[in-house]
Write a structure and sequence with these properties.
The chain is built from 8 helices and 7 strands; from the N terminus they run ααβαββααββββααα. It is mainly α.
């Protein structure tokens, strides 16, 4: 996982540098070399939600924010779901619970109008407690309109199912797909624990003290 994340940092930092964002380029490498943690560059509108999702364990916990767009994230320890699938090491007894929790994670982000943008199996870390942690939020978008939330519901669910299939060259077993869809729908249709306004207030307090 460390080598994988190193290569990921190289790729993302080069994109930032070639795109003219020298600040992001420096921030990537300062964080990675100093404490071996992960840095992600996200849209300003997405950052408050990632702080909230990190506190809930859906994403890695946000440790610091620079310029409202560069987030330093706690490293999520564990293998990638894609690695487990390709190696045939995914525990079949606990897999339905894992996929149901993953569905709940995507259902929650959809309920708040967030599109992940790249939900494939190598962007899911599986912890020792069999919890999925979703990483790589650089392509995430926020669309607060109600119609947008409905669209994101369809897109996040379809992308996660397609990503789990296409990334590994095989379809997930039907019982795992059913568990993911069930978790997604249950979470999406549940009342939100916090309002968007509360999430923004807590994020502002975290970012600015």
């Amino acid at each position: 996982p460390v080598l994988y994340d190193t290569l990921f940092c190289v790729q993302r930092s080069l994109f930032s540098f070639l795109g003219g964002d020298l600040y992001s380029f420096i921030a990537f490498w300062w964080s990675f070399l100093m404490d071996n943690r992960i840095v992600d560059v996200v849209g300003i509108a997405v950052a408050p939600f990632l702080i909230y999702f990190g506190n809930r364990g859906i994403t890695p916990k946000v440790l610091a924010v620079e310029g409202e767009e560069v987030l330093t994230l706690e490293r999520a320890e564990g293998p990638r779901l894609g690695q487990l699938l390709r190696a045939g090491r995914l525990d079949q007894a606990s897999a339905p619970v894992l996929y149901e929790r993953l569905g709940r994670a995507f259902g929650t982000i959809s309920r708040y109008g967030i599109l992940h943008g790249h939900p494939h199996s190598d962007n899911v870390v599986v912890t020792l407690e069999n919890n999925p942690v979703v990483i790589d939020w650089g392509m995430a978008l926020y669309l607060p309109l109600r119609d947008g939330i409905k669209a994101w519901r369809t897109r996040n669910l379809a992308d996660s199912l397609a990503g789990l299939r296409n990334r590994d060259g095989l379809a997930s077993p039907w019982n795992l797909r059913r568990a993911l869809i069930s978790g997604f729908n249950d979470s999406f249709e549940s009342p939100a624990e916090k309002s968007v306004q509360e999430i923004h207030r807590e994020a502002h307090s975290f970012m600015y003290g």
